[in-house]
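Moderator note: this is an archived Q&A kept for reference. The question asked for a predicted structure of one protein chain; the sequence and the answer are reproduced below.
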Amino acid sequence: MHEKEAMSGSLSILAKNRAHAAGLGSSTNAVKYQNQDFEALRNKCLTSNQLFCDPTFPAAPESLGFRELGPKSYYTRGVQWKRPKELVSDPKFIIGGATRMDICQGNIGDCWLLAAIASLTLNGDILAHVIYPDQSFSKDYAGIFHFRLWQYGQWVEVVIDDLLPVKNGKLMFVQSVDQNEFWSALLEKAYAKVNGSYEALKGGQAIEGFEDFTGGIAENYKLSEAPPNLYNIMKQALRRGSLLSTFIYGNFNEMEAKTEDKLVKLHAYSITAAEEVHVDGNVVQLLRIRNPWGNTEWNGAWSDNSEEWNLILPLEKARLNYCAEDGEFWMAYSDFKEQYSEVEICNLTPDAASRVSATQWTHHQFEGSWTIGCTAGGSENNTDTFWKNPLYRITLLEEGDDTVDGNILVALMQKNRRSLHKEGQGLYQIGFSIYKVPEELYGTQCLQWKDEVYLGLPCSERSGIFRSQREVSARYRLPPGDYIIVPSTLEAEQEANFILRVFTEKQSDIKDVDNEVSFVLNDEREITAQDIDDSFKNLFAQISGQDKVVSADELRGFLNIYITRIQGLKTDGFTLETCRYMVDLFDDDGSACLDLVEFQILWNKIKNWLDIFLKFDLDKSGNMNSYEMRLALEAAGFTPNNMVNQLLVARYANNGVVDFNNFVSCLVKLETNLKTFKQLDRDGTGYVKLNLAEWLQLTCG
């Protein structure tokens, strides 16, 4: 990561944190995605009598894709972009309310998304939150539509135009059973926009779509290891408004292959109901399942027109509306466990737009990053760097209820990886571990980032096998106490941003384990000329010449001769810029040079910094790595937090390597900044206030 990228990212996180604190990004105050204001854009189009064309997601090849749907692909030959009014004479946004029957899959492998959309229609509150209902192709029509999506910890309002990709006169992607209805196609376009292209939607799990429509938290159950009460869990989840999906395992060659019972492998289905019926006095547990293709249904027991329907009362048969050629079917739970492989459940959170009663978790959310050379420590297999990962300390204050299956739910999500598909980057394998803090350290603030604090802590829980998924999550039952959560990638030095969400049944407190930024300066300004020995005065006379002061150029010449004599030190030497910073830091009289006392103070600093550098060059390579640099900075009196440390590594490390010149440059810059801050913070409040001219004076100097 370059310095500018690190600075930009840090400023972005800082701005986002402040905006979140003010309520921006909540379900009732969505962020305007790419700063596009729907009302302003629509009014502009209506005033100019022009239809909206979205410059941020244009009707162009790059919006389709990059490989299979790339500009030279067979699949994109002859593609045209047309508005619904060019396709049908009387287009409608929604006809008779949005239902799960409105979605049929097109020519892209995003059945996972369509399964999520189908389940979305079962909850009118959530549907109305995602799909702004007051939209049409008649009143105030300007070719512009908008949707609300949850994206990595915040709600965003996404604006699109209604130009849709068409081939051979038909929509290429999702479409409604009713050819005049377009809400599902437009929602798919909005989702493609936030992920970079339509092709970026290929492949995934329905749970990803569930979360992006609700802001909810996901859970996953392998049916081969299903708990005995899974059917009741699913039934209760549906009753609470949760979204459920399922799929069948298969190898790569079985992608969307059909079984003898007309089920499709590696294909996302949505679970839309759980009901019980009575057969000969016995209760049969049924599930209603939907194939987003709109056809291809299960043909086993309890399928459409199967003989089992003749065994129940007509009233029950009518209640379940069992028979329709629509891709939706019923099957017994016992058969479901045999046929399908996994179930995904998206639990609604307190922020979900639903009147259905959701479990009132206490919710904590953190944004973090794994940064090469700083916090990309990898899993526990990477013993030298594991504890460099971001750490989060949670205090569980109360016992959980015995009736609840777990009192803490932890979810780790890696951000924006789908949009990086076109660059050949995929999902990392991610996971997390939870460590118990010893009782003698409860409530203390001593748990900082240093390794020795954590070595030997007992691991209470793990997320399981590291998975190449957008999110991994797990539910646990933990007794009251303090715990450390360590999110990580499997391999060290893998860079990505992440969100850690923690939901607890009872009250809890959680915060990131990080240092408070501090700097302790040794006051060496009391030195006088009488304190300086004759040998140093002779050295100063040789360096300074007739004018009796040392310039930045003279300082550079002396230091670069001196450091070549230090064994075990690798460096390209000090730059003139670094020497100017050193002179500026210790030049009290504004002469742009150093007198004898000023030079003595600087020399004492340099010798101290050299001792620290050699001490923390643990492998005696002549350089420090970026992890050793943080330890050395603390020894020099400066304690950075994670964000500041990332900026320093981006600025002063070269491919993770810090030489002595850059180490000194870093400390000089830090000390200069601290000196300036203290001068401006006259009242010692810890805050300074600058106008624009003062800010530019400092940053441009």
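Archived answer notes: The two ends are 24 Å apart (CA to CA).
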